Amino acid sequence: MKKSLLFGVALASLLPVLAMAQSAFEGTWKIDLNKVQMSKKPDILLLQNGVFQCKTCVPAISVKADGEDHSVTGHPYFDSIAVDVVDDHTIRETDKKGGKVVGTSTTAVAADGKTAVVDFTDSSDTDAAPITGKVTMTRVEAGPAGSHHVSGAWRSTGFQNFSDNGLLMTFKVDGDHLSMTTQTGQSYSAKMDGTEAPYKGDPGITSVSVMKTGASSFTETDKRDGKPISVAEVKVAADGKTMNVVVHDKLRGTTSTFAADKQ
After folding, report:
1. pLDDT greater than 60 at residue 244
2. Residue 114's CB: how many other CB atoms inside 10 A?
3. 227 φ, ψ to 5°?
4. Among 52, 105, 193, 249, which residue has the least CB neighbours within 10 Å?
5. What is the rounded average pLDDT of the residues 232-261?
6. How many Cα neighbours within 13 Å face the side chain of 174?
7. Beta bridge pairs of residue 87
């Protein structure tokens, strides 16, 4: 859920950085979609005069909405975007990298304009089966007069039918090192003292550091080319069955929360 311009923010927040500080944290954990709370800071979209813009993307995006591939720069997960206007309530987006499709999404705005549903596929950081799912968005502010119905400020407020490969994470502690793997190919092995270590399998994350902050808590920092882009504060419940996570997205200036259940 991760890198396409319409659902990337939501998906990126659902696949946070996590770290284990002791053997009790080992195992496989699954994000509970019913316990995800996205930032209240909205995403701002504009489709008008044949041009689609994501004003809150980092960096911002502006491409012709003509169904053709258009190059974009500064995004590690894709290098071109095609936006096709299906009708006055629906658009379709295709993201590519090196000519290969890495993400698709269809955004359909409800007749009353108050909500929208994004159906997506995302393989921007995996050679395995793509992550699939749906994101429900709630309108915060309408777009300008005469713009497409997708225009305006939106908050991601619901998540449905996410494939397990986008929700499951497995951890192992070996001495003072934590190892993490996902079904989509991300992995790292980091010393739990804040030492920076390589982050593998994700074009947007180059290194990670893990710091134990208490008997059942820790902080993990993801970096891109030495710059922190995401910080996760994690605390495991006393029964060891639930992991509560607060994710600070440093690029977008947002904070989201979720819980993961031990499998």
Report:
1. yes
2. 11
3. -105, 125
4. 193
5. 94
6. 7
7. 90
Residue keyed to tokens 């991601």: 156
Q: Is the pLDDT of residue 106 over 90?
A: yes
Q: Please tell me the distance from the alpha carbon of residue 193 to that of residue 141, in angstroms, as a whole number.
A: 44
Tokens of 114: 């108050």
Provide the token pair at 245. Answer: 């996570």
The half-sphere exposure of 117 on its side-chain side, counting CA atoms within 13 A, is: 9
At 262 the three-state DSSP class reads: strand
Chain position carrying tokens 């080992």: 26
Q: Is the confidence at residue 18, as pLDDT, over 70?
A: no
Residues 6 or more apart whose CB falls under 8 angstroms from that of 132 comprise 120, 121, 122, 161, 162, 163, 166
Strand order in the sheet with 51-54: 61-64, 51-54, 43-48, 152-160, 131-142, 115-122, 100-109, 90-97, 80-87, 70-71
Residue with tokens 């934590």: 178
Q: Residue 75: which of 65, 87, 60, 90 has the closest Cα?
A: 60
